Amino acid sequence: MIRSLSTAATGMEAQEKRLDVTANNIANVSTNGFKKNRAEFEDLMYQTYTTPGAATGANTRTPTGLQVGMGVRVVATQRMHTQGDIQQTGNSLDLAIEGNGFFPINLPSGEVAYTRDGAFKLDAEGKIVNANGYALASDITVPANAQTVAIGADGTVTASVAGEKEPVSLGKIELVTFANPAGLVARGKNLLQETASSGTPIQEAPGQNGIGTLAQGSLEGSNVKVVEEMIDLISGQRAYEVNARVVKAADEMLQQSANLR
Amino acid sequence: MANGIYVALSGAVAQSQALDVVSNNVANASTSGYRAVRVTFGEALTKAKGMDQRFAVTQGTVVDATQGTLVQTGNPLDVALQGDGYFGVNAPQGVRWTRAGELRVAADGRLVNADGLEVRGAGGKPIAVPPDAAEITIGADGAVSAGDTQLGKMELARFDPKSMAREGATLYRATAAPVAGAPEVVAGALESSNINVVRGMVDLIRVSRTFEALHRAIETYKEIDQRTAREIGGPK
After folding, report:
1. What is the mean pLDDT of residues B144-157?
2. What is the pLDDT of residues B188-206, one digit of tens each?
3. Residue B175 and residue A67: Cβ atoms within 8 Å?
4. Which end of chain B is more exposed for a tag (fewer CB within 10 A), N or C?
């Protein structure tokens, strides 16, 4: 019974973590390029009193074992890299990736981070930067006299400059993919970073090998679906409640035993 | 001393073990691929002074093989098994079987489960996904393909539920050879735990009430013994 108290506690703890994950998903329902997380559960080890199939005699075996489990834990939070809804914004520096790629971003520390948030801007020098002012790794500078900037589906950036007949080529935006994008670690500010389990970044031009194409004037919204999160919230809360009941039942039973004397 | 107090005690011990099983079920209400445990009770017989006494014991735990609900997730690497059976993974301690289908691609391209154990392909070989694979699809027979190229086929098997020993991490060890047949793989979905919360609550009430009744019996035996000691043994 002492065990069922702690077993139910593992259940409550795991549901609490799930609630934390759900709360973060709901909080980021309007965050560009946000990918929702999911808590994944697994059962803990089992105390085996009798192994199924253990010999009970020369020719007989136990048909079933006797195993009592120790509860549950959250084994992982998996980021779901499904496509978010793409919204038209009309802003020429808003980019959405239709596919699996990420934009590489140079951090001030010299490291590279990756994002799906394509709400880019220009800084004082005309460099393409994200909302935090971190430059796009492809390092593209838009001249001050540029009238319009066009970004093709394949990432080529051109600008029409006053006095020039032909549009001026400014460079190419490259994207990266990972063998296991779910293995990237979230750093906040819509940024992800490489880990040993994500694999090394594979750089490609947009449109190559399924890396996705760019859509100018659009933004990828969050892939959080509020209805799904609400259902998760309800079932998580109920599961928490049921585990709390088990704690209460075990406590009452222990009390009865304690009162015997 | 009345021996019946030990019979009541054996029942109370068995019920407290049953509570441990119920609480594990309830704790795993959100574990995908988890299958409920049912506890079976039996009697142990002793002949004492020509009188039979039956003690209650927990005989065993069996896997409840009822299908859990399939929840659509839209993630192509989530697989649910429809029908009885398991898919194989290579654990450090050997081949293990599971129904928890939260699969992913490891950094080296192997298809692995949530714990990073590789999914067994044909002949126990890992299923390797090339880094430039665009869309991975998993067929009803467990065939994993990227576009038109088949990368491997998940090893599926069916066992007598009684021969499956639990090891935690939603893994099972088979203690007997597989039986004929295989489950169907549904990609883009997860099988939720087959715990029925209502049944969990009913089990909880039944266990706690039975436990209470057995305590009453112990209490009564205690009173009988007390009265015997007081009324027969003591001075008037």
Report:
1. 89
2. 999 999 988 888 889 999 9
3. no
4. C
> Rounded mean pLDDT of A240-249?
93
pLDDT, mean of residues A164-193:
89
CB contact under 8 A, B169 and A72: no
- CA-based nearest residue in chain A for residue B77: A80
What is this model's ipTM? Answer: 0.76
Q: For a pLDDT cut of 70, what percent of chain A falls above it? A: 100
3-class DSSP state of B19 = helix
